[in-house]
Design brief:
The protein has 427 residues and is α+β, with helices and mostly antiparallel strands. Helices cover 44% and strands 13% of the residues. The termini are far apart. The relative contact order is 0.09.
């Protein structure tokens, strides 16, 4: 008979002390817990036995957390989590942060190897259905095995924290590489993007859409040189039983500089959505800056919906043509699969190997960087701004680029800006 875990012991003790269950109920639950293999969390067993409800379980965990985890008092992750243990893994350092949570390097004590642990922001679990979504999508991501995708090994919860244990990749993300070294050589950029598309092709075959491909979510290693897609924690399964998506919460999930038109307008997403995001990432690798920038998120999303991707500087039209097809506003006009897009890029790569350089292209005046008619109607613009506000409140939206500081300041004035546009449209 195995002893209950420290987490279960703390949960049971707090449940009794706070009057949620009696000592007799705890004894009965612990007796059953000792016969289970593997042992479930005591919280789940108490719910199963009908001794507490799901909401009472959440309340008990908050009480447990208030005594043992200072981060949970504010509902945020912090450096105070360094040195604590999650599923037998000791947290060592922060290696990444995003709208959904933070990623840490940790050491798996039993296996004696480093792993990555992504911990969902506790505040997000208060959104209805988000905790269940995290577990479901972690389980889906664990089924994905590909050389260009960071593997998911396990997932669980500790107090208010839901977390995933993943493969640790000792490299730098493309955003960091761009900041240090500037734009990529054309052949190197194609080499990277082809591998991203290969990983996505495997994901799409399982019905998994990443939804947030961007330089910060692609890791590049040096020896050996390889590419890994990270952060499948925001995936959406396309199976019939999991058709709901975050637009049901009235929110936008992703990063505006890389977001597809259908994400901005809360339309259905599929594998072609990822191809659009990859195209935006490809452009930034080649130019060293995002294709679309602006003083506010609304302005950037308007461009994603309306404006064709700007022409590249100093490259042959063939490359512009591939980028334009990857980032077509209509999904039906894009490459229909990641494999199709990868094949087009491989052809360009081999052509470049023979010619050694791309000649500068003559710019097409019809493909300017600015918005083109027709403009977004007032109702759609209001809906986008409303979803942006909700997403920002839950910390689910990230905004990147050189103009980030100005954009954050401008975000406070977005409501006034939007009202001006509405008034102008009505005149």
């Amino acid at each position: 008979m195995a002893d209950p875990s420290p987490e279960s012991q703390a949960f049971g003790k707090t449940a009794v002390e706070r009057g949620f269950i009696t000592g007799d109920q705890l004894e009965r639950a612990l007796e059953q817990l000792s016969t289970r293999e593997p042992q479930p969390p005591l919280r789940d067993l108490l719910v199963e036995l009908g001794f507490i409800t799901l909401s009472q379980g959440d309340a008990i965990e908050r009480f447990v957390d208030s005594d043992s985890e200072p981060e949970a008092k504010s509902g945020e992750l912090s450096d105070g989590i360094i040195g604590t243990s999650f599923g037998g893994c000791v947290i060592k350092e922060v290696v990444g942060s995003g709208g959904m949570g933070q990623t840490y390097r940790a050491h798996h004590t039993r296996l004696d190897r480093d792993v990555a642990i992504k911990i969902l922001h506790p505040r997000l679990t208060r959104i209805g259905g988000m905790a269940e979504r995290f577990q479901r999508e972690a389980r889906a991501a664990a089924k994905l095995s590909h050389p260009n995708v960071v593997s998911v090994f396990d997932f669980d919860r500790k107090g208010p924290f839901f977390y995933m244990v993943m493969q640790y990749v000792p490299g730098r993300n493309l955003k960091e590489v761009l900041e240090d070294s500037g734009p990529f050589d054309t052949r190197r950029a194609i080499w990277v993007i082809v591998r991203v598309l290969q990983g996505l092709e495997a994901a799409h075959a399982l019905g998994i859409v990443h939804r947030d491909i961007k330089p910060a979510n692609v890791i590049l290693t040096e020896e050996p040189a390889e590419v890994y897609i990270a952060d499948f924690g925001t995936v959406r399964m396309l199976n019939a039983s999991t058709q709901e998506n975050l637009s049901a919460f009235g929110e936008i999930l992703g990063t505006p500089q890389y977001m597809s038109p259908e994400q901005a307008t809360a339309d259905e997403v599929d594998g072609r959505t990822d191809i659009y995001c990859v195209g935006m990432t490809f452009y930034e690798l080649l130019e060293g800056r995002p294709a679309f920038t602006g003083a506010s998120m609304v302005e950037v999303l308007e461009k994603q919906i309306l404006a064709p991707i700007p022409q590249l500087s100093g490259y042959r039209p063939e490359l512009d043509k591939v980028l334009a097809k990857m980032t077509a506003k209509d999904k039906d006009e894009r490459y229909q699969t990641a494999g199709e897009a990868a094949a087009a890029l491989r052809e360009l790569y081999h052509k470049l190997s023979r010619t050694q350089s791309f000649k500068p292209a003559h710019r097409d005046p019809s493909r300017s960087a600015g918005p083109v008619a027709p403009s977004i109607d007032t109702q759609s613009l209001e809906a986008i701004a409303d979803r942006l506000r909700k997403s920002q409140q839950h910390g689910m939206l990230s905004f990147e680029g050189a103009e980030e500081a100005a954009a954050l300041k401008a975000a406070k004035a977005e409501a006034a800006e939007l009202q001006k546009r509405v008034s102008a449209a009505e005149k």
